[in-house]
Structures are given as C-alpha cells and as structure tokens.
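Module 6 notes. Inverse folding takes a fixed backbone as the condition and produces residue identities as the prediction. Think of it as a translation problem where the source language is geometry and the target language is the twenty amino acids. Below is one complete input and output pair. Work through it position by position during the lab.
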C-alpha cells in the first residue's frame, strides 16, 4: 500500500482496534497468476505472535483455500471509516483541492489450515461469541443439535494467519495546516451527517486533542 509518511500509522494498539471494529475484511491471494478475493469475517487474536493472528474460514466449495501452500503470503484488507472532505471547509488562506480521508490496514501472513476437529470447533465458537456478544439472547453452537453442527463444520475450511507485518494508513489531513484540519473536523461533524463522516471526524479530533 502506498503510504506517504504523514499518513503512516504504526501504533499496534490502534491498528488492532481498527481491525476489530471493522472485522469483515477482504482476503486476497493469487491463483495461477490471477488475483482472487473473498469477503469474510475475521477474529483477531492479539496475544498470538508479535503482530497478532487472524482466524477465519472459507466455504469448502470455495477454491481459494487450495492455494494455501504453507509458503505463500496472503493479504487481508480492513477498511475503516472514510469520507469526502470538501475544500470549502478549509481556511480561505490555505486553499486546497477536494480529497478523501480514510483509515485502512493491510495485513500480511502465510495461512495455515486447521485440521484438528477440536481446534476447528473452538475457532468457530470464538467467532460466534465475538459477533453474538451484546445480544440479549445470544446464539451458540451448543444450542444446536450436534449432528447439525458437525455437518456444518464439514462444509468449511478454517485457517489462521500469523501476521508477519501490518501496514496502517490513516489519511486524516495530517498534511494540511491546523486551521484546515480543524475546519474539516467541523465540516464532517456538522455538514455531513452520515456515520462514516462522523467516525472520520472522531479519528481526526482524537489526533488534534479536540473534544
């Protein structure tokens, strides 16, 4: 990923937070010289490895997993909030052109397939628990017939990706004068009411120390 120095985010805690907040990612690999991608939910194990480990699974019918050879890296893309930034929000003394602010992470590692049935089940239980958390009546594998769950588990291929490196790009107008950055925050908060714009404004405000 092209990352100009002002936009580089290297704080691991911030990167982990974004992955967990936007856990539905894009798994990219190359098969026979062509790019292949799958959109899947991930669970991040922060404590496993220096850069964490991603847990995921594919449908067994999805051929992408056949390329997991134990040697070749894959790319997982996580897209955080993003929003259009109008130059009309800037200080007139500091003219600029329209742009787009966003946060994104590219995570790289070599996937390894999980063959152990107990490990496979534990991974799926963790996935369900992660996304059922907070519901008044959370669903669980244990609440279903065992033969049904066993059949469903046979239809997937689970894997984990110990992350070799993380690339974070938080493009939040860091290359603009302070007056422009503050103007963009005000504009995103007041003139663009969609959730992504508010989220981008919150990221920018945190960096600026603005309430």
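Target side of the pair, the amino acids:
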């Amino acid at each position: 990923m092209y990352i100009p120095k002002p936009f580089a985010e290297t704080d691991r805690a911030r990167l982990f937070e974004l992955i967990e907040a936007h856990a539905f990612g894009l798994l990219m690999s190359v098969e026979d010289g062509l790019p292949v991608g799958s959109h899947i939910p991930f669970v991040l194990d922060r404590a496993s490895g220096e850069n964490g480990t991603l847990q995921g699974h594919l449908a067994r019918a999805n051929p992408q997993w056949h390329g997991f050879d134990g040697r070749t890296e894959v790319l997982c893309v996580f897209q955080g909030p993003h929003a259009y930034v109008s130059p009309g929000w800037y200080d007139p003394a500091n003219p600029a052109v329209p742009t787009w602010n966003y946060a994104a992470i590219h995570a790289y590692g070599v996937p390894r397939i999980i063959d152990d049935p107990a490990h496979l089940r534990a991974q799926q239980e963790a996935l369900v628990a992660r996304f059922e958390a907070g519901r008044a009546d959370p669903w669980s594998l244990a609440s279903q017939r065992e033969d049904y769950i066993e059949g469903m588990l046979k239809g997937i291929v689970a894997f984990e990706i110990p992350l070799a490196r993380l690339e974070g790009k938080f493009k939040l107008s860091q290359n603009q004068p302070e007056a422009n950055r503050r103007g963009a925050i005000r504009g995103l908060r007041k003139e663009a009411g969609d959730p992504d714009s508010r989220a981008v404004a919150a990221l920018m405000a945190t960096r600026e120390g603005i309430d």
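Reference fact for the lab report: The chain has five helices and nine strands.
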